[in-house]
Write a structure and sequence with these properties.
Structural class: alpha+beta
Helix content: 25-40%
Oligomer: single chain
Strand order of the largest sheet: 3-2-4-1-10-9-11
Bound molecules: guanosine-5'-monophosphate, magnesium ion
Radius of gyration: 23 Å
Shape: globular
CATH superfamily of the largest domain: Aminohydrolase, N-terminal nucleophile (Ntn) domain
Strand content: 15-25%
GO molecular function: 4 iron, 4 sulfur cluster binding; amidophosphoribosyltransferase activity; magnesium ion binding
Keywords: 4Fe-4S, Glutamine amidotransferase, Glycosyltransferase, Iron, Iron-sulfur, Magnesium, Metal-binding, Purine biosynthesis, Transferase
EC number: 2.4.2.14
Number of strands: 26
Protein name: Amidophosphoribosyltransferase
Number of helices: 16
CATH topology of the largest domain: Glutamine Phosphoribosylpyrophosphate, subunit 1, domain 1
Function: Catalyzes the formation of phosphoribosylamine from phosphoribosylpyrophosphate (PRPP) and glutamine.
Largest sheet: 7 strands, antiparallel
Number of domains: 2
């Protein structure tokens, strides 16, 4: 099982890349807390440091000093309950006959087993069961026969699924976004070089300028002297499959993804939530931090609505910032305790009031369940829950480790059942149409698998929401196609 992660790549004129990579990984820490790593190249050889833990813990001053070279890539990896696995930490690096490769991957292939089996038959030995290693070996093999661009194109014709990659082939840094653009990837300009990153917030951190998103199916090659880059549209997708959940939950609100500022999208979703299911109450309060932008948009729309009573936007829940993301907790009991540890109501904003509580999503229901009870205990008269995403009814296979069907509270329950289970006076979710509207995308260009149960990819045992023509694996696609 692979995870959503953060990837970066940097090519500078003559400064060491290690520090900018380190800072940009810090900016992407929310995308993965299990491990962090950097691989650089100094023109002669690769240097690598990959360790378990947060970015701040994974690197010492001396680690950064030994990462010589003006070119490099980095990675932060997302944790999955129970599989703290040092073998899968990235960047993945290999040396082979025609050079060295480093690879950082965000996403999840759906045909890694098939491609891996084929490569194994051809004599490739794998050290992990990860799909990133499959990509690395396939690319290494193609690089024995083709130039860089053709080799990447050939690999892209064989792998299927979700991948935003930063790759280092010797001292050349590349960025690749899968033809469906499932995960984000963007390119930015620094004073003395160029940077590729999962999110533009990482470029901001380096005082760089966002140039644009890497396009679905595009390869970006950063010049090894840090002075420019070339791009190749290697696959022309008919439809994209952007993950809407990046905009709803996962990405930083200060990032621009596919030309939209995430914060504004979330505020628009909050406004749509008012339009679809607004209810008068004394206060509107967000579940911090994920509900904040939604609640501010919702309250704004409520206060603009001439037919409504007007509402106070209040920070009614205090967050203990030192508690990690609750998902990391392996058991349900620990997850429940963690919510209580993490959030505490501010009594004066709650007592004797009718409250609308707003969050981005309900996954297992743990957070809403605990918070509704907490607000009643603090003296709330009514608690209405509004959610800035549709019910999550099915798992994510594309890199967001969202739990299995049995764990998803909405997998087999109606909204009314869920309302009763979490004990709220009312509950409403946002519609899928509102999501497509806020993202200015057709539903056919989004991956909506977790809210429809139909996926834009071939996944064993799951329904598909579109026809996608793909070459059968094993047909050695030519780069000139
Ligand atoms: P629940 O408590 O219902 O299981 O999860 C909902 C809460 O988890 C929401 O506050 C939401 O912000 C957060 N959340 C949603 N998706 C994810 C995810 O993929 N990872 C983590 N860590 N949190 C998530
Ligand atoms: Mg949350």
């Amino acid at each position: 099982m692979h995870e959503k992660c953060g990837v970066v790549g940097v090519s500078l004129e003559d400064r060491d890349a290690a520090r900018p990579l380190y800072y940009s990984l810090y900016a992407l820490q929310h995308r993965g807390q299990e491990s962090a790593g950097i691989v650089t190249h100094d023109g002669f050889q690769q240097h690598s440091h990959v360790e378990m833990g947060l970015v701040g813990d994974a690197f010492e001053q001396s680690d950064l000093e030994q990462l010589n070279g003006s070119q490099g890539i980095g990675h932060v990896r997302y944790p999955t309950a129970g599989s703290v696995n040092a073998c899968c930490a990235q960047p993945f690096s290999v040396s082979f006959k025609s050079g060295s490769l480093g690879l950082s991957h965000n996403g999840n292939l759906v045909n890694a087993d098939e491609v891996g089996d084929q490569l194994a038959d051809l004599g490739h030995a794998f050290t992990s069961d990860g799909d990133t290693e499959v990509i690395a070996h396939d690319l290494a093999r193609n690089l024995l026969e083709e130039d860089l661009v053709r080799a990447v194109k050939r690999t892209m014709s064989r792998i299927h699924g979700s991948y935003s990659l930063t790759i280092m082939h010797d001292d050349t840094v590349l960025g690749v976004r899968d033809p469906e653009g499932n995960r984000p990837l963007c390119i930015g300009e620094l004073e003395d070089g160029y940077v590729l990153a999962s999110e533009s917030a990482a470029i901001d951190t380096l005082d760089g300028e966002l140039i644009r998103d890497v396009r679905p199916g595009e390869l970006v090659v950063l010049h090894a002297d840090g002075t420019g880059y070339d791009t190749y549209q290697l696959v022309q997708p008919e439809n994209t499959a952007h993950c809407f959940f990046e905009h709803v939950y996962f990405a930083r609100p200060d990032s621009v993804i596919d030309e939209q500022l995430v914060y504004e999208v979330r505020r628009d979703l909050g406004r749509a939530l008012w339009d679809e299911s607004g209810i008068d109450s004394d206060v509107v309060m967000p579940v911090p931090d994920s509900g904040r932008a939604f609640a501010s948009g919702y309250a704004e729309a409520a206060n603009e609505d001439a037919d409504a009573d007007g509402v106070e936007f209040a920070e009614g829940l205090m967050k203990n910032r030192y508690v990690g993301r609750t998902f990391i907790m392996p058991t349900q009991d620990e997850r429940e305790r963690a919510v209580r540890l993490k959030l505490n109501p501010i009594k004066s904003t709650v007592e004797g009031k009718t409250v609308t509580l707003i969050d981005d999503s309900i996954v297992r229901g743990t957070t809403s369940n605990q918070l509704v009870e907490l607000l009643y205990d603090a003296g709330a008269e009514e608690v209405h829950v509004r959610i800035g995403a549709p019910p999550i009814v099915a798992p994510c296979y594309m890199g967001i480790d969202m739990a299995s069907r049995e764990e998803l509270i909405a997998a087999d329950q109606s909204v009314a059942d869920i309302r009763d289970e979490i004990g709220a006076d009312s509950l409403a979710y946002l519609s899928i149409d509102a999501i497509a509207g806020a993202l200015s995308k057709s539903k056919a260009d989004l991956c909506l698998g977790c809210v429809t149960g139909e996926y834009p990819y071939d996944i064993d045992g799951e329904a598909k929401d579109r026809e996608v023509d793909r070459p059968a694996i094993g047909t050695a696609a030519s780069a000139d196609d």
